[in-house]
């Protein structure tokens, strides 16, 4: 089995092949507008499948609808539980005003030592690198302790309803891995007197906060004014008041009443009036 230095030498020797794969991927127009029918990522997934099959790497295409395929490939390790997933996506954002492009958006033109085209960076360059990594591992006979997953999903640009979101809901076992490498890092910048590569780190999960603002009447916390006064006011120091409204209206914005009796659907409504509905998902 070659050492790391020998593998790096192989990568240098494969430069033309790497660029050619990147060009092939960019030339597959997988534009995602967010409104169906759109995306058409399956041809990209088929290209990846055929590329990996040359080296005997098995893969499958799973899809919510036929034209929006997600490609999943594995190199099995001594332990079949995957520890790492190489993530990317196959869709690209719209080209907008094509006449303003220096080169046609799906031409994958090489100029100034760069590949120009929609998706050349986001995210088909990363997908190219991951495909090449799988090929190098396989061709060099590198034995893995744990399995490695490559998954490139559809619909990343518009929420993943046909991509990773759908996979997580319907095929979670296919993408189960405690660690993943995805886009968001690797950009070189000049810093600290030298060339620095950015690294982004994140965890599973999200915090989503939603605000709804609209015209309303004189009520607070989703109930009557007396409900606010009786249930919420003692918690925030508002004097007991049959209306409760005047106290809330005089409060600075940083002290607006917080609904404590209905934490799943809090509403604060000021007479005249602004209704503020706050939702929080973890």
How does this model look, in words?
The protein is an alpha+beta fold. The protein contains 7 helices and 12 strands. β11 (267-270) and β12 (274-281) form a beta hairpin. The relative contact order is 0.13. The chain has a 5-stranded mixed beta sheet with strand order 1-2-6-3-7, with helices on both faces. A 3-stranded antiparallel beta sheet has the order 10-12-11. Strands 4-5 form a two-stranded antiparallel ribbon. Mean pLDDT is 82; it is low at 217-264 and 268-272. Helix content is 27%, strand content 24%.
- Widest beta sheet: strand line-up: 1-2-6-3-7
Question: If you compute it from the alpha carbons, what radius of gyration comes out, rounded to the nearest whole angstrom?
Answer: 26 Å
Query: Element order, helices and strands?
Result: HHHEEEEEHEHEEEEHHEE
Share in β-strands: 15-25%
Q: Tell me the number of strands.
A: 12
- The overall average pLDDT, rounded, is 82
Percent range for helical residues?
A: 25-40%
Distance between the termini: 46 Å
> How many strands, what sense, and barrel or not for the largest sheet?
5 strands, mixed
Number of helices: 7
Q: State the secondary-structure class.
A: alpha+beta
Show unreliable segments.
Answer: 217-264, 268-272
Name the shape in a single word: globular
Question: Which keywords apply here?
Answer:
282 residues, alpha+beta, 5-stranded mixed β-sheet, 3-stranded antiparallel β-sheet, 7 helices, globular
């Amino acid at each position: 089995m070659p050492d790391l230095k020998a593998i790096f030498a192989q990568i240098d020797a494969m430069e033309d092949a790497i660029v050619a794969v990147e060009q092939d991927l960019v030339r597959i127009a997988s534009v995602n507008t967010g409104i169906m029918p759109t995306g058409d990522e399956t041809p990209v997934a088929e290209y990846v499948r055929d590329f990996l099959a040359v080296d005997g790497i098995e893969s499958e295409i799973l899809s919510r609808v036929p034209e929006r395929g997600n490609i999943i490939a594995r190199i099995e390790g001594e332990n079949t539980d995957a520890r790492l997933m190489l993530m990317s996506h196959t869709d690209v954002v719209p080209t907008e005003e094509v006449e303003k492009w220096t080169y046609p958006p799906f031409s994958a033109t090489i100029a100034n030592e760069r590949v120009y085209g929609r998706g050349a960076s986001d995210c088909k360059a990363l997908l190219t690198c991951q495909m090449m990594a799988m090929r190098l591992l396989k061709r060099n006979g590198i034995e893995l302790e744990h399995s490695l997953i490559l998954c490139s999903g559809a619909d990343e640009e518009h929420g993943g309803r046909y991509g990773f979101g759908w996979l997580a809901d319907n095929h979670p076992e296919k993408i189960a891995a405690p660690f993943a490498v995805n886009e968001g890092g690797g950009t070189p910048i000049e810093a600290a007197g030298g060339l620095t590569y950015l690294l982004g780190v994140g965890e599973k999960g999200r915090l989503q906060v939603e605000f709804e603002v609209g015209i309303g009447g004189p009520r607070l916390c989703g109930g009557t004014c007396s409900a606010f006064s009786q249930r919420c006011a003692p918690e925030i120091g508002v004097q007991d008041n049959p209306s409760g409204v005047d106290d809330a209206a005089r409060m600075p914005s940083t002290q607006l009443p917080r609904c404590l009796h209905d934490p799943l659907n809090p509403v604060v409504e000021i007479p005249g009036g602004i209704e503020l509905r706050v939702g929080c998902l973890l």
